[in-house]
């Protein structure tokens, strides 16, 4: 089991941090917007959105924002409580990695930060569970081996296509056409790299928009569901609750007042 000891979200242009990572404590960061710079053991690392950096205990590092460039990152300090078969936590060198399942890792790390800020019942246990998921995703990708850049580019093109057509029914045939490959190849590659099916990724994109519309618009839940491509309101409720942990109606109180 692993336990988060400190969780924070970096956001801005004036970030600077310098330390020697304590023995037995790992530092995990995920850049979620823009880019920043780290020097780890004297090696310069320009980190961009979608990349993570895992720094082992005893390692000197410092990091800072790039002048005039806004960036955001999640940072978690963690301790391994007992032996776990996680190769990423057994190596002594820093690990820089661009995960194919970035969206899943982003969601889990955001969830950890929310647990840490709100401190609901059992928040430490929930944070441990989410952190274990993050580390398992990372280790699965490391076990699988590096995916060639060309395949990553195919997947990024498919993601962009989905993000432009998420309100529609997106098929593997359409994605195959988008990258010039067969439908089965496109679906298999997407699943291999992202750890999500095409359908799961489409639902995730829809739920991101649903969160915004539920809190920032005055549309009814029925109207939001239809706008996002769900003809059956009960199905929208099921998907939203499964992915977000609560029904969409729970967010209506966060809407700004009508002036």
TrEMBL record:
Domain HTH araC/xylS-type stretches: 156-254
SMART domains named among the record's database cross-references: HTH_ARAC
Pfam families: HTH_18
InterPro entries attached to this UniProt entry: Homeodomain-like_sf, HTH-like, HTH_AraC
Lineage, highest ranks first: Bacteria, Bacillati, Bacillota, Bacilli, Bacillales
Species of origin: Paenibacillus cucumis
The entry's keywords: DNA-binding, Transcription, Transcription regulation
This protein's name: Helix-turn-helix transcriptional regulator
Signal peptide start and end residues: none
């Amino acid at each position: 089991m692993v336990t988060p000891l400190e969780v924070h979200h970096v956001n801005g242009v004036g970030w600077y941090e310098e330390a020697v990572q304590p023995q037995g404590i790992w530092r995990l960061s995920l850049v979620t917007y823009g880019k920043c710079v780290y020097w780890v053991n004297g090696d310069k690392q320009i980190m961009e959105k979608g990349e993570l950096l895992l720094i082992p205990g005893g390692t000197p590092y410092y990091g800072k924002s790039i002048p005039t460039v806004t960036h955001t990152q999640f940072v978690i300090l963690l301790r391994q409580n007992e032996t776990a078969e996680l190769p990423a936590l057994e190596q002594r060198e820093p690990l820089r990695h661009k995960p194919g399942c970035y969206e899943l890792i982003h969601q889990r790390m955001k969830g950890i930060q929310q647990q840490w800020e709100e401190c609901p019942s059992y928040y430490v246990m929930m944070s441990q569970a989410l952190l274990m998921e993050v580390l398992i995703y990372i280790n699965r990708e490391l076990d699988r081996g590096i995916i060639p850049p060309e395949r990553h580019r195919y997947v990024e093109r498919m993601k962009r296509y989905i993000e432009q057509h998420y309100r529609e029914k997106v098929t593997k045939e359409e994605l195959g056409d988008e990258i010039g490959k067969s439908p089965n190849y496109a679906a298999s590659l997407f699943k291999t790299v992202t750890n999500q099916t095409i359908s799961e990724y489409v639902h995730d994109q829809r739920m991101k928009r649903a969160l915004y519309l539920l809190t920032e618009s005055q549309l009814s839940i029925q109207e939001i569901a239809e706008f996002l491509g769900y003809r059956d309101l009960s199905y929208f409720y099921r998907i939203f609750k499964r992915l977000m942990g609560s029904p969409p109606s729970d967010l209506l109180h966060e809407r700004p007042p009508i002036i």
